[in-house]
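dude i think i finally got it to work??
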Amino acid sequence: MILRRRGRDMKKVLITGIKGYQKGISPLFPPTCRYYPTCSSYAIEAIERHGALKGTVMGTARILRCHPFVKGGFDPVPDKFTLKRNQTK
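look at this
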C-alpha cells in the first residue's frame, strides 16, 4: 500500500516537472522535436501508462533517439515496455 502510494506520488512529481518544462521553458525555444507526439508528451504518457521508473526510462530513451540525424515521424507510446521505437505506421 505504501509503495503504491509512493509510486503515484513519484508519477505526479515527474509529470508536474515535465508540464512545467512544457509551459515555462519549451516556449522560449523553436520546436525541434522530430517525433509526434513530442518527446515531453511521450514521456508524460509513458509515465502514466507504465509507471514512474519504466516511463522515465522510456522517455529518456526517446529523447536520446531524437537528434538531427533521424527522420522522426509518428512514434506513440507502446502498450508494452520497450526502449525501441514503436514501428506502428
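Residues 2-74 form one domain.
im so relieved honestly
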